[in-house]
Amino acid sequence: MSESSLKIERSGPAGQVATVTLNRPDVRNAFNEALIAELTEAFKTLGQDPTLRAIVLAAEGKAFCAGADLNWMKAMAGYSWDENHADASRLAEMLWTLYSCPVPLIARVQGDVYAGGVGLVAVCDVVVAVESAGFCLSEAKLGLLPATIGPYVLRALGEQASRRYFITAERFSAAEAHRLGLVHELATPETLDAKVEALLAALCASGPAAVRACKRLVQDLAHATITPSLRDDTARRIADIRASEEGRDGVQSFLNKSRPSWLA
After folding, report:
1. How far are the Cα atoms of 21, 173, 238 from residue 232, in angstroms, in the given order?
2. Alpha-carbon distance 148 to 151, whole Å?
3. What does pTM read for this prediction?
């Protein structure tokens, strides 16, 4: 496994922010087996760190991620069904690992995003992209389909937009991705880092356990039917956090106009 496929750095007070950088600029940060394995392992490890407040997913070079590596695709062309299934399952596991990571995840998109790269963006909680970035779900052009990334892209892009871009494989702009909800913030190359830093500051100003609980709440409630059991579940969640040390500290600090412990 190449050590240069991924870079992980810690920053902020007590290293509370991790930046995971795709580091294959010569192939536009395209996926191969090694990068998929590294991303899976990195996010499993980072997700278990209780001191971590946020993760930034970034990339080196002109493109954020161009989907599948050409050499990897050449190898897959000769795979049997079982080998293809096993290979796709590893990609599906990687995407799920990022999506289910309890730590808030910000995508710093500095360039074009194609195919599987769109899935990588879609699993993030907040997406900041440069205005010049282009997006494309290009699988159909190769006679394929965006299957493993589909559940995440559909949630992030919406059903109607997904219908169009899955079947036409058209390129669309960062402005259109922003209009559709896939991208939260647009930036110039000069303001990209400042916008990411502002989001990190906002995340770190809130209660660490509350932020993680909010992330999980959205994932659990999305598309859920509002049943008596769901209403009870939400009541239990707020009761749990109100009764927690962090919740009590936060409320008392607000009432007393003082700083909570996580900002002390």
Report:
1. 40, 42, 10
2. 7
3. 0.94
Neighbour count for residue 192 (Cβ, 10 Å): 20
Contact 67, 119 (CB under 8 A): no
Checking 197-201 for CB contacts under 8 A at 24+ apart, the result is 199/106, 199/126, 199/128, 200/12, 200/17, 200/53, 200/54, 200/56, 200/106
Please list the ranges in the chain whose pLDDT falls under 50.
1-2
Dihedral, CA of residue 148, residue 149, residue 154 and residue 159, to nearest 10: -70
Q: Which two tokens stand for residue 141?
A: 């052009």
The full set of domains in the chain, from first to last, is 3-203 (3.90.226.10), 207-263 (1.10.12)
The pair of structure tokens assigned to 3 is 């050590």
Residues 217-259 have pLDDT tens digits of 999 999 899 999 999 999 999 999 999 999 999 999 999 999 9
